[in-house]
Amino acid sequence: MSVPFCSLKYAHDQIKYEAEKAMEGVYRRGQFILGTELEAFEKEYAIYCGTRYCVGVASGLDALYLSLHLLGIGPGDEVIVPAHTYIASWLAITRTGAKVVPVDADPANMLMNTSLVKKAITEKTKAIMPVHLYGAACDMSQLMEIAKKNNLYIVEDNAQGHGATWKEQKTGSFGECNATSFYPTKNLGALGDGGAITTDSKELAESAISLRNYGSTDRFTNPVLGINSRLDELQAAVLRVKLKYLDEWNGLRRAVAQTYLTQLKGVGDIILPTASYASVYHLFVIRTQYREELRSFLFQKGIGTTVHYPIPPHLQGAYSSMRFKKEDFPVSEKLAETVLSLPMWPGLDDGQVEWVVRQVKEFFEGK
Questions:
Q1: CA pair distance 226, 224, nearest whole angstrom
Q2: Are residues 75 and 197 in the same domain?
Q3: What is the rounded CA–CA span in Å between residue 146 and residue 168?
Q4: Residues 6 or more apart from 118 whose CB is under 8 A from it?
Q5: Whole-structure pTM value
């Protein structure tokens, strides 16, 4: 049996007629940038997240960068970020000219270790960037308290957390300015690159609208330095269709996760992710010291897997100038050596999930 790591076919087949109709409408109207579809999506996504405003931009990285920039973060400032995350979280900080200040992961949940955040704060710290990795929410209660006591901004990286909650509040709604990505494989994915900023601040939203469009709100008038980063009409139209199905699709992810959690409990040396209905399981990530052997075995059985992420940002060549070294963030480094993402997408049927479980068990029977 073939079980791809990720497939968009189920979701795209389900919305095929609606998506084609929505794209045809954009084509017919002939308005492809900053039009009615984007305006409608921004309103709908803001409502979904529980924020007052949403501003669509060209990518998740742009959303992170602009969120930091809007808060005045730049050279001389420091931003606390997880050591275990995709490098985009770091790149956005670097792009502002601010200094990346990593904190190690919590071995219990693989997210930012909130107990280490306080120790990382200096007089130069301006913001904390929690990353809701793998679809699980960071402890926003503690982080918001720390931020308030130290007069710091919170900028959420919600690229993997569409629909996730912390104490029944949606992720992407806690910080002053928050960012997300609509990369195609995300829980809410476009048909190309895309991203958005969410905020409750009218001032920040208006500034973001200007910055994403060359620093302009009136054509050919540019009072501030901006960039070109706009979520286009075709992507917005498709995202509007997909948004209506997001909770349903997240429910299907949770059902797959529940099977994995139940059936793989106590198998070999596997460490399972924390079970939580609040998670939207963008990825289902296990840990095992036999990662490479297991991955090879599953590949031979037709099962796709991926490693998120094999090299932590602090050991990437892009950050060699910061002179980080092995053992600086031991938990994150251990995760990089042991994490393995199993197939996870809405539309995985029971037979496919059972096949994955059976093969994982078979592998560990030989250990």
A1: 6
A2: yes
A3: 20
A4: 146
A5: 0.97
The Cα-based distances of 50 to 39, 44, 160, 309 in angstroms read 17, 10, 17, 30
Same domain, 255 and 230: no
Q: In degrees rounded to 5, what are phi and psi of residue 345? A: -165, 150
Residues of the chain with pLDDT under 70: none
CA distance 51 to 159: 16
Strand pairing partners for 35? none
CB 75 within 8 A of CB 51: no
Of 243, 274, 298, which residue constitutes the final position of a domain?
243
In the structure encoding, which two tokens stand for residue 32, read together?
């492809």
Short-list 57, 4, 110, 158, CA closest to 339: 110
- Per this entry, what is the length of the chain? 367
Q: What is the pLDDT of residues 124-157, one digit of tens each?
A: 999 999 999 999 999 999 999 999 999 999 999 9
> Domain range spanning residue 331?
246-365
